């Protein structure tokens, strides 16, 4: 073969392969993006950050922008870096209380206000840019004292049915802009001092469901400890039935922001549970729960789903475990 032709063919194979590998699946790219941003946050000595909903080029938010911000937040927390991350539920409350919007945080004065009221010294925000069959993300790290950009990173992932559904759904309360002040829950349940707000149920990866919820402690003086019951619901892990009547079980490896625990004969004793998540007085946390199909199905059906999970709630957590109160949550919620 002609040497020049060999070089051209080899170069074409390399470039084509590089292009194909460039756009990975969404969750993989978000994990890689988290690593890049976390390294820069640590390098600049930032100690507490918050992640804002990503927006389109017009500054409008969507369910995809909320999902990206939620996943970055969770990945940063799970990465156990040398900085802390402000819970997104608290961030929304602060923005609402002080009448701030996400898009307004690029203004130095607004950024300073967020730093003052939320105790954060940097914010992460970004832009979603459709590029043919792919989605491109640009993310920036902005200081709250000067609104200076001290870090940035890019990511790109393929558009599939799940991503397209996220894009086409406006974020609740954000149809007119990128405000995070309103993020109404579809369902709210109260169990003593614990308030549970079921916010969104999305189909992810084609055949799984992901539930996002906010857990709030309404006691102004005492912490509460909470976990998902390993033994509650339709199956040993809790469950969900989709619009076609197929059952999905909680994936304990797909939990974020909340613990999974046993109690009774499978726990420490008949009246206690461990581990548990502490929610401090008047504080709240955001959590996500994934549901996997029972029978190896690869598709999940959108529509009204039946949800059943059990929360283990305690207020006297000692050195090993908390005295348990079992709270059964049964609800209908729409999956998109």
- The helix content, as a percent range, equals 10-25%
In CATH terms, what is the architecture of the largest domain?
3-Layer(aba) Sandwich
Number of structurally distinct domains: 2
Specify the structural class. alpha+beta
Spell out the helices and strands N to C: HHEHEHHEEEHEEEEEEEEEEEEE
Per DSSP, the total helix count is 6
Query: How many DSSP E strands?
Result: 18
Description:
The structure is a single chain. By secondary structure, the chain is an alpha+beta fold. It has two domains: 151 residues, ABC-type transport auxiliary lipoprotein component (Rossmann fold, 3-Layer(aba) Sandwich), CATH 3.40.50.10610; 149 residues, Immunoglobulin-like (Sandwich), CATH 2.60.40. It is 25% helix and 36% strand. The protein is built from six helices and 18 strands. Strands 6, 7, 8, 9, 10, 11, 12, 13, 14, 15, 16, 17 and 18 form a 13-stranded mixed sheet that branches. About 9% of the residues have low confidence.
């Amino acid at each position: 073969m002609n040497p020049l032709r060999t070089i051209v063919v080899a170069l074409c194979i390399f470039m084509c392969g590089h292009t194909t590998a460039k756009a990975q699946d969404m969750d993989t790219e978000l994990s890689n993006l988290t690593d890049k941003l976390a390294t820069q946050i640590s390098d600049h000595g930032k100690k507490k950050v918050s992640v804002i909903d990503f927006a389109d080029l017009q500054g409008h938010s969507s369910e995809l922008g909320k999902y990206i911000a939620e996943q970055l937040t969770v990945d940063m927390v799970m990465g156990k870096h040398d900085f802390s991350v402000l819970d997104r539920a608290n961030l929304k409350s602060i923005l609402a209380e002080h009448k701030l919007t996400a898009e307004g945080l690029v203004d130095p004065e607004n950024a300073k206000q967020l730093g003052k009221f939320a105790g954060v010294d940097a914010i992460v925000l970004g832009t979603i840019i459709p590029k043919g069959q792919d989605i491109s993300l640009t993310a920036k790290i902005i200081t709250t004292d000067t609104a200076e950009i001290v870090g940035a990173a890019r990511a790109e992932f393929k558009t599939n049915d799940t991503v397209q559904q996220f894009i086409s759904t406006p974020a609740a309360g954000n149809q007119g802009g990128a405000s995070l002040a309103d993020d109404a829950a579809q369902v709210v349940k109260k169990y003593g001092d614990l308030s549970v707000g079921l916010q969104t149920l999305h189909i992810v990866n084609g055949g799984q469901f992901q539930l996002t919820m906010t857990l709030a402690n309404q006691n102004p003086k005492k912490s509460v400890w909470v976990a998902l019951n390993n033994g509650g619901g339709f199956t040993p892990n809790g469950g969900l039935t989709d619009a076609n009547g197929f059952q999905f079980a909680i994936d304990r490896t797909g939990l974020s922001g909340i613990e999974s625990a046993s109690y009774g004969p499978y726990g420490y004793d008949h009246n206690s549970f461990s581990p548990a998540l502490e929610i401090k007085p008047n504080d709240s946390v955001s959590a996500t729960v994934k549901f996997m199909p029972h029978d190896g199905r690869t598709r999940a059906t959108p529509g009204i789903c039946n949800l059943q999970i059990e929360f283990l709630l305690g207020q006297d957590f000692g050195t090993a475990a908390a005295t348990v109160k079992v709270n059964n949550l049964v609800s209908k919620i729409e999956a998109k």
